[in-house]
Amino acid sequence: MVRAIVLLSGGLDSYTAAAIAKSEGFTLNALTVHYGQRHAREIESARAVAHWLGVERHLELSIDLRAIGGSALTSEVAVPRDRDLTESSIPPTYVPARNTMFLSLALGWAEVLGASDIVMGVNALDYSGYPDCRQEFISAFEHLASVATRAGVEGTRFRVHTPLIAMTKAQIIRRGTELCLDYGLTTSCYDPSPTGRPCGHCDSCVLRAKGFEEAGVPDPLALRAV
User: Fold this and answer.
1) CA torsion angle for 48, 75, 134, 123 (degrees, to 10)?
2) Of 105, 141, 138, nearest in space to 30 by CA
3) Rounded CA Rg of the chain
4) Hey, what domains does the chain have and what are their CATH numbers?
5) Is residue 132 classed as helix, strand or coil in its secondary structure?
6) 216 burial via Cβ count (<10 Å: 0-12, 13-18, 19+)
7) What are the pLDDT digits (tens) for 174-216?
8) Which one, of 67, 64, 199, 207, lies nearest residue 123 by Cα?
9) SS3 of 151-178
10) CA-based nearest residue to 74, from 46, 56, 94, 97
């Protein structure tokens, strides 16, 4: 049995990345972080997804990043809607150092479990321009893991698996469809209504809709809203 820690948000990408890792033979241990995000409904989705995946253990940790702020997802800053996604500027939905913190937590748990593999659903093509979704960041973190842990200095080579990093959203959805994933379990919207209805206008909603359209696959959440 080869264990892997998967960072599971309840979104489409992390679900697909986890399913790919499972298809490759990894036994999954899922880590979900409550960080004070306004779209906390994704935690419920993460639980549903973890159950669907049949993970060995689903660990939920709480770190309230609202005290730090600096993001539309952790403060009263408005979530941008209908933004021009061709812009190169980093949007206000970027959460400062979020993936660095999440990977550090996953790394600590991996070391305790004797695992050397971490899986996350970052994507560097159809995304919102976050700097911690790029291969440069992933490679740097792998080097950090080798010098920042007892296991690392004793010879363990930690690897961060990012199977979606060079895929378009449409390609991700097609791969998930091949794996028979139920995308109706997922949550993507950054600013859902109190009932969980997607806004349809934030970056994440727009990218999701574009991906399903280009993949030629109906979005089960859109069908449910009709």
Assistant:
1) 30
2) 105
3) 17
4) 2-225 (3.40.50.620)
5) helix
6) exposed
7) 999 999 999 999 999 998 888 778 999 999 999 999 999 999 9
8) 207
9) HHHCCCCCEEECCCCCCCHHHHHHHHHH
10) 94
Question: Distance from first CA to last CA of the chain, Å, rounded?
Answer: 43
Q: Which helix (H) or strand (E) holds 109?
A: helix 98-113
Tokens at 88, concatenated: 């190169």
Residue 44, H or E segment: helix 41-53
pLDDT digits 0-9 by tens, 105-156: 999 999 999 999 999 999 987 667 789 999 999 999 999 999 999 999 999 9
Q: Which of 56, 55, 75 is nearest to 15 (CA)?
A: 55
For residues 109 and 33, the answer to whether their CB atoms sit within 8 Å is no
Task: Kindly report whether the global pTM for this prediction surpasses the value 0.90.
Answer: yes
β-partners of residue 2 are 26
- The first and second tokens of residue 170, run together, are 């449409």
